[in-house]
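1st attempt posting a full record on here, be nice pls
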Amino acid sequence: MNGTEREPARTELSAIGQALAILGDRWVLLILQRAFLLRIRTFAGWHDALGISESVLAARLRELVDHGIFELSAYRNGRTRYEYRLTDRGLQLWALLVAIQAWERDWVAPGRLPPLLHEQCGQDAKPYLGCGSCLEPMSARDTRTEPGPLATFSRIGPPRRHRRTVRSDAPPDLIGYCPASMEILGDRWSTSVLAGAFLGIRRFVDFQSGLGIAPSVLTDRLRRFVELCVFDARPDGSYRLTDKGLAFFEVFAFLVDWAQRELPAPEGSALSITHALCGAAFQPVLLCRACGRPLQRREVRFVLPE
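the predicted structure (as tokens):
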């Protein structure tokens, strides 16, 4: 960053832009995933489970505390130690993490990820996206999105925080995330490009001007999305979401919902999403494929391998 450039303040970004800046990182996602699935709460626990360097882990945990997702809690074990507990804001991310796993289950590693037990009906939930008002299943095609007067696309592009941490040669993690999905989930620019596609961006020049992304970085992300069958490169030079890419709307919906409920942002920078079928403001829920009821955090658990 040269002397004339300035990293945008958090309040200059929309809530969605802030959420991408916080969550668009492989290590952050893996830390949160272990916190939910394995109940890891200590620095040593994440260090042992992830093989992450101490400096990187310390930086990510510090940021998660700063953003109100974790809070430090003292306990005694011979001497005073500290553990990281999910706050109410952090606990609200459970639906986003389940949606990520559901997308991976359907499109990345079918049959390989652990089932999600719905304790209300005793079945594998196989969750899918529904409308919280009418409880009907829905997809990106079933919504209307109206940006606020200040919801310019430039407010979505997050500032640079970390080096890219995707490792395409990493082995699959059967309780975490697979390397292919990390091309989207663990990289802020990839997630931002996909968010732009959901908001109607189709052409290279529009992605570049809207996000402020370097041409070489954008070329790389678009190429990878085509290779992953998330985008279809059209003869007219546009990029269109494939069925696999459209299915990622389930993840995007919960990211937007969490961001706009939990993060402060400039007035007028929000997106208004409406479920076209019932006309209600969109409130995403996860529905159980076995019984059709909405899933609640305390009523579901992953059945992990022994």
